[in-house]
Specification:
6 helices
């Protein structure tokens, strides 16, 4: 696909598929039922609940940007609903938003994260082939999503904002491309009751926890994210909640569907 901006034509920077031969080369962020390979365990299990997790949005005939695609479970689900999908995620050519504790070996953390990212990307490409997907992947950082991807109807942010040092900038980057709607699912710092009136974010790293390197930066309450989305031009917002399995427990997650 080629998109023209201000008189110049740019090719969207789609990444070539990887031929990943073994599950041993992969890391799965989500538990997935992979055709020909059965159930592969991951950190989160959204199976049977992806529709509510995405606000029961009708993706038929839409062009959708899935920001932070990880293993691809949302991308492949959305594609199965009849959408054209562009998956977007880091690769091992980019750096994770590591919490830069001065006492830690940042270079070692950086190497570890890049190796981990390669295994996450491998999981995506392994499933891409198994599902016979036609989704396209763009690798980069969420703060600078290439405009050469072109307009999309919907941008999806599935539990990615908590991992980001500047969540508003990432939303702004996706909002530049989204013509119709933004869908954000994330974890609130408060329960459902507190989330109904509190807007303050919670900063998660603590000075006495230098092991908290990649476990997230902020917990953003839904009212704050709704404010962000309204600022970015999506004033019509609906909010829903669900409980989703993370490892050995259920975690409440909110979903916002924001429309222009």
């Amino acid at each position: 696909m080629f998109t023209t901006f201000e008189g110049r034509t740019e090719a969207a920077p789609y990444s070539p598929p990887r031929d990943v031969m073994s599950l041993d080369e992969c890391y799965f962020y989500h538990t997935m039922d992979v055709p020909g390979h059965g159930t592969v365990e991951g950190e989160w299990d959204l199976r049977g609940a992806i529709g509510p997790y995405l606000g029961n949005f009708d993706f038929g005939g839409k062009r959708v940007l899935d920001v932070g695609a990880a293993s691809g479970i949302l991308s492949f689900h959305i594609e199965h609903q009849g959408a054209e999908v562009v998956s977007f995620d880091l690769s091992d050519e980019f750096d994770w938003d590591i919490v830069p504790f001065r006492s830690n070996d940042w270079e070692a953390s950086r190497r570890d994260r890049r190796a981990h990212l390669r295994r996450i990307n491998n999981g995506y490409w392994f499933c891409h082939k198994a599902f016979g997907s036609r989704a396209q992947m763009v690798n980069g950082v969420a703060y600078d999503i290439p405009e050469s991807i072109g307009p999309v109807d919907v941008a999806v942010f599935g539990s990615i904002l908590l991992h980001l040092r500047d969540p508003f900038l990432a939303l702004e980057s996706g909002a530049r491309l989204a013509q119709e709607a933004m869908i954000v699912a994330d974890v609130s710092p408060y329960g459902r009751l507190g989330s109904s009136f509190l807007k303050r974010p919670r900063f998660m790293p603590k000075a006495d926890r230098p092991d908290w390197v990649t476990d997230g930066w902020f917990r953003l309450p839904p009212l704050l994210v709704i404010e962000y989305l309204k600022i970015l031009g999506f004033p019509y917002c609906s909010l829903s909640w669900g409980n989703y399995r993370y490892r050995d427990r259920k975690v409440p997650i909110y979903t916002i569907v924001a429309r222009r």
